[in-house]
Amino acid sequence: VKLGAVPPLLAALQSDNAERVLLVVCNVAASAEGKAAMLDNDAVEQLVQLLRNSKGELGSNSTRENCVAGLYEIGKGSMRFRRLAKAAGAAEVLKAVAETAGERAREKARRVLVMLKGMQEG
Fold first, then answer.
1. Structural domain contains residue 1
2. Cα dihedral sign for 60, 66, 67, 68?
3. Which residues contact 38 (CB under 8 A, 6 or more apart)?
4. What is the DSSP string of 17-77?
5. pLDDT at residue 58 in the model
6. CATH number of the structural domain spanning residue 95
């Protein structure tokens, strides 16, 4: 992360390997340093956009689940996440996932929505 791995990692979300890249994004976002780098490099916007445009291969349940998991990891304990998520229109996209995706993706989307709501109230 210190050597600038996050920008090319996020750029790889636009590749044919997006599903695999999402797993790495989730792992990187689990650390404080990785989370900060994700926030600094528009990961929230990119993950929301990937969810919004999910069709065909990108519409697989595992891809949607990993997008939401990435958002959850980035958002845990981050007030900055709320602002970025709001700007990206995350709530609308997450509500759609919570209603239409597979069970695991739906549950993770609900968790992120609760987190966003809690941050708004706090």
1. no
2. positive
3. 6, 10, 25, 28, 29, 44, 70, 74
4. THHHHHHHHHHHHTSHHHHHHHHHTTHHHHHHHHHHT--GGGGSHHHHHHHHHHHHHHHTT
5. 46
6. 1.25.10.10
Q: Which residues of the chain have pLDDT under 50?
A: 56-58, 122
- Give the pLDDT score at 56: 45
| Segments forming the whole domain that contains residue 59 | 6-121
Look up residue 120 and give its amino acid: Q
Tokens of 56: 């065909």
pLDDT digits (tens, 9 = 90+) for 79-94: 899 999 999 999 999 9
The single-letter code of the amino acid at 53 is: N
| Tokens representing residue 104 in the block | 């695991």
pLDDT of residue 59: 60
CA 1, CA 37: separation in Å to the nearest integer?
Answer: 7
